[in-house]
Amino acid sequence: MLNLAVFVSGKGSNFHSILRAISAGEINAEVKLLVSDKKYCGAFDIAEQNGIDKISVSEISKSGFITYKELFDLLHELQINLIVLAGFLQKIPVEIVSAYSYKIINIHPALLPAFGGKGMYGINVHKAVFESTAKVSGATVHFVDNDYDKGRIIAQQAVDVSYAEDPEDIAAEVLQVEHKLLPFVIKKFSENKIVFENGRVKVLL
Ligand code: GRF
């Protein structure tokens, strides 16, 4: 059984897609903890409705938040074996990255390495894609290391955005892809079907 911690900063639609896949019996996993850098975000309502513990984390100690050191201990206590970043906007501290090497994944709303890196999140990504006049975009799930969006790519799914009238159209198309791709990768993790071959990540059928 995969013990998941999901890190969010926003609405939580990706978090919700994971919960739906688990309750449909598609993934042998349990979300043990929801973590946000915000005091409150939309994902918290989804956690409440599903009886999932949630906490807010901050670099500096302030009321209503735990510190990353406390979070580190909590992740260990909960025996978390996969951390999923689903719209989390902060950098993961190096201590957590090294303790969870190849056990932290992130979903990015574009086809990395294009349209990634610091500041490329949310609608900024889709604005850049729209301005570039690219005809396809998509989503990427990758391992998290100490650089934004640079970790080894696990899976990608492209989507035709040639008819998009604005960045919001692209966002809507890509979000639908995200909601399938992230649960797919987590399922493969739960089945130990994510392997490494010659420095590349392979997802076994
Ligand atoms: C998604 O577009 C995801 O790719 C990006 O942040 C957004 C989170 O959306 N990292 P939600 O909170 O899951 O609805």
Précis, in short:
The chain has 205 residues and is of the alpha/beta class. It is 34% helix and 27% strand.
For the structure shown, list the relevant keywords:
205 residues, alpha/beta, eight-stranded mixed beta sheet, 10 strands, 34% helix, binds 5-O-phosphono-beta-D-ribofuranosylamine
Q: Can you characterise this structure?
A:
The protein has 205 residues and is of the alpha/beta class. It has one domain (2-203): 3-Layer(aba) Sandwich (Rossmann fold), CATH 3.40.50.170. 34% of the residues lie in helices and 27% in strands. The protein contains 6 helices and 10 strands. The chain has an 8-stranded mixed sheet with strand order 4-3-2-1-5-6-7-8, with helices on both faces. A two-stranded antiparallel sheet has the order 9-10. Helix 1 links the parallel strand 1 (2-8) and strand 2 (29-36). The two termini are 19 Å apart. The mean pLDDT is 97.
CATH domain class = Alpha Beta
Helix content: 25-40%
Cα-atom Rg, whole angstroms?
16 Å
- Look at the structure and give the mean pLDDT: 97
Low-confidence stretches: none
Write down the CATH topology: Rossmann fold
Beta-strand portion reads 25-35%
Give the ordered list of helices and strands.
EHEHEEHEHEHEEHEE
Please tally the helical runs, counting DSSP H or I stretches of 4 or more residues. 6
How would you summarize the topology of this molecule?
Layout (H helix, E strand, L loop, with lengths): L1 E7 L4 H11 L5 E8 L5 H8 L4 E5 L7 E2 H10 L4 E4 L8 H6 L4 E5 L14 H10 L3 E8 L9 E8 L6 H24 L3 E4 L2 E4 L2
Parallel strand pairs: 1-2, 1-5, 2-3, 3-4, 5-6
Antiparallel strand pairs: 6-7, 7-8, 9-10
Helix pairs in contact: 1-6, 5-6
Bound molecules: 5-O-phosphono-beta-D-ribofuranosylamine.
The site of 5-O-phosphono-beta-D-ribofuranosylamine (GRF) has 16 residues, from helix 1, strand 6 and helix 6.
